[in-house]
Amino acid sequence: MDSSSVFANIVRAPEDSILGVTVAYNKDSSPDKLNLGVGAYRTEEGKPLVLKVVRRAEQMLVNDNSRVKEYLPIVGLADFNKLSAKLIFGADSPAIQENRVTTVQCLSGTGSLRVGAEFLARHYHQLTIYIPNPTWGNHTKIFGLAGLSVKAYRYYDPATRGLDFQGLLEDLGAAPSGSIVLLHACAHNPTGVDPTIEQWEQIRQLMRSKGLLPFFDSAYQGFASGNLDADAGSVRMFVADGGECLAAQSYAKNMGLYGERVGALSIVCKTADVASRVESQLKLVIRPMYSNPPIHGASIVATILKDRDMYNEWTVELKAMADRIISMRQQLFDALSARGTPGDWSHIIKQIGMFTFTGLNSKQVAFMTKEYHIYMTSDGRISMAGLSSRTVPHLTEAIHAAVTRVG
Amino acid sequence: MASAMISLASATPSASLSVQETLMGKTRLASGCVSTLFNKEKGKPSIKKKSFGQISMTVAVNVSRFEGIVMAPPDPILGVSEAFRADIDVKKLNLGVGAYRNEELQPYVLDVVKKAENLMLERGENKEYLSIEGLAAFNKATAELLFGADNPVIEQQRVATVQGLSGTGSLRLAAALIERYFPGAKVLISSPTWGNHKNIFNDARVPWSEYRYYDPKTVGLDFEGMISDIKAAPEGSFVLLHGCAHNRTGIDPTPEQWEKIADIIQEKNHIPFFDVAYQGFASGSLDADASSVRLFAARGMELLVAQSYSKNLGLYAERIGAINVVCSSADAAARVKSQLKRIARPMYSNPPVHGARIVANVVGDPALFDEWKAEMEMMAGRIKNVRQKLFDSLSAKDKSGKDWSFILKQIGMFSFTGLNKTQSDNMTNKWHVYMTKDGRISLAGLSLAKCEYLADAIMDSFHNVS
């Protein structure tokens, strides 16, 4: 009994639904257990991977005795910011050349989204953000806490396991002018369903005609197709029309820097003058949140991006990761086909990026966890990055059993 | 034009001020909506209004949605360093931001930190996400460092510890917890205090008020004022206390005064909220600098403590700290920890691993821990020496009989000189000594070699400028 505590009324919060999957996985003692929950890349041996080029960069940094640990500026490491903007917008982007982009280092994707949302909640006139249905579970909380009102636009079509494009156009078309719209730049999380280039162009035209403000979440650049430029195509299309947008970048997956929390928020503005005023206001959001961002991860990124050889090494390692995932997709699809598992499983090879939206329901998921020790989120999302050739058979059996025995 | 302004404004769906805008006193005119009327770039209006009041694509494309945003003022503390960098005078001295400098006035990376980083590289540790609450080994080490490993609060598992983004981030997590679970409760902050405290509570939407602290007449603690103001506050307020080495003044309560502060806080059922940014850095002893926190914990009080490793381990840019909440039971601590995680997840998901590993390695290895203690004594020692030299220089130069001993009585990185804004400006403009306008100097940025020069500057500003 705790009546003497001032914290007596504080109840225990449930585990975060995505990160909680790993917590449950860790508790399981079965040798067959498989963690297909959180989106962290695993090697064919099922091990976390630190890229060789990252290790090299880190060694260089630690060996450099001239390096100090002084506070970064509130907006973060300048080199990192410039290089990140070039990475996503393209080195020859007119927006960059015209100084119309402000880029601030933030704590990975989450931090970039939160800082952007806080900024919009204070300075933008339309405080509603439209997010795709479904989307990453943390999006709603980030935007809600920042002070934005969150609405959904249709996105995933369970019937086709693909994009509900008509629904998307209708919902964005009905959104009040000026509303903010969250767009996954590539490799939509959790569905893996991306618009085609033609569909992106239609989305762009609709959004610009309604004055809707794009807010890109780019967590998988280079990871989706294996090509950094291709994966930034949607973002660059919007920037090319001269309009404004926000973009949150994460290096968690594409550089494997998960725990270092490296990311950037860019705001593309109409003019350089506006961009500099916007930057000054971003600083007012950041300073009372954490003062200035952590140096280590950003230094690794900057070291790699600014060196021709290291950059090329990175693209090779990145492509290898993306290729392994694409290969897992093919293997799982082939295995399910060979097994004769009922249903159309082609979405596994059509969807893009780290995740597959299997189409399994929460009862089937619970069954797979209990009987087969497969850990995944209850929405049926599996992380392909957590699969290997060795574990595909086990997953295939589990899916087959779930589909044939559980409704 | 006026009628067009009104009708366009009404066409915008969200017309109400956000809570934050109200707090910061912004008006509707600062928003991007109304300002789309002003096409500053092309010099001609390009507003097309459809009959039902929607803004057309032409306006949206030509004018920034952020046009109405004003340039924010530079951060008063960090802005000092920027001004210093821009100054080309060779005599310039940066006594602005509180980052330790060695006698050569260079930034200092501790040897133990370099050793820890090399160890980490050799081990080839991975870069997986930490859990939302941070690195377990760090959380354990940091709570033990603060309370003492054998403290009952630790043995009874009554401390909820969550890794945070240095002091600022840890304070912000606590502020968010207060806002959510103690609605309407106020935080009492000292007058003066670190400039960012009020920004943190403002952004977290936690009301605050000040308690008297600094007495300009004695250049010391206004103890009666402090007690009186804490007593007058509504029951159940949070009282923000600097664990040691008060920032901005360098003035700490004595042990007897701490007891009386604890008395009044208990009497009013207030909740102590410590900001511990200088453990080990103030006196050179980790345990001595934690004595205020331990005094309160020993009384069985529930309390909050924000910690930072920026100064004592020189890990400024790694952003490593923690929020600790001492509760009356292990169950309460578990619940509080779960709610702190819920606050962190939509802010940054999980904290950065690098700084946490460095701390865990240094504190967890007896040899490295001893080495750290020695380096910390060296840093704190250098500051004490500089205080002594400055005091000696001023006493030798000043024939007016003014008592400069407050420099020796104050503790930690900072000294409140008693110089006012005009005098501080003179320090900068005439003597190229950079400091904050409230008369605060950072002794960490002062070398023995520069004490004479600084003494001259202070003498001139104090006696010849009003």
Automatic annotation (TrEMBL), chain A:
GO terms for molecular function: L-aspartate:2-oxoglutarate aminotransferase activity; pyridoxal phosphate binding. The keyword Membrane does not apply. It is an enzyme of class 2 (transferase). Its EC number is 2.6.1.1. It catalyses: L-aspartate + 2-oxoglutarate = oxaloacetate + L-glutamate. Important for the metabolism of amino acids and Krebs-cycle related organic acids. In plants, it is involved in nitrogen metabolism and in aspects of carbon and energy metabolism. Pfam families: Aminotran_1_2. NCBIfam families: PRK09257.1 (NF006719). Homodimer. GO terms for biological process: amino acid metabolic process. This is Aspartate aminotransferase. It comes from Salix dunnii.
UniProtKB/TrEMBL annotation, chain B:
Pfam families: Aminotran_1_2 (PF00155). In eukaryotes there are cytoplasmic, mitochondrial and chloroplastic isozymes. The keyword Ribosomal protein does not apply. Important for the metabolism of amino acids and Krebs-cycle related organic acids. In plants, it is involved in nitrogen metabolism and in aspects of carbon and energy metabolism. Its cofactor is pyridoxal 5'-phosphate. It catalyses: L-aspartate + 2-oxoglutarate = oxaloacetate + L-glutamate. InterPro entries: Aminotransferase_I/II_large (IPR004839), Asp_trans (IPR000796), NHTrfase_class1_PyrdxlP-BS (IPR004838), PyrdxlP-dep_Trfase (IPR015424), PyrdxlP-dep_Trfase_major (IPR015421), PyrdxlP-dep_Trfase_small (IPR015422). Homodimer. This is Aspartate aminotransferase. Its EC number is 2.6.1.1. It comes from Salix dunnii. GO terms for biological process: amino acid metabolic process. It is an enzyme of class 2 (transferase). GO terms for molecular function: L-aspartate:2-oxoglutarate aminotransferase activity; pyridoxal phosphate binding. Belongs to the class-I pyridoxal-phosphate-dependent aminotransferase family. Keywords: Aminotransferase, Pyridoxal phosphate, Transferase. Residues 91-458 form the Aminotransferase class I/classII large domain.
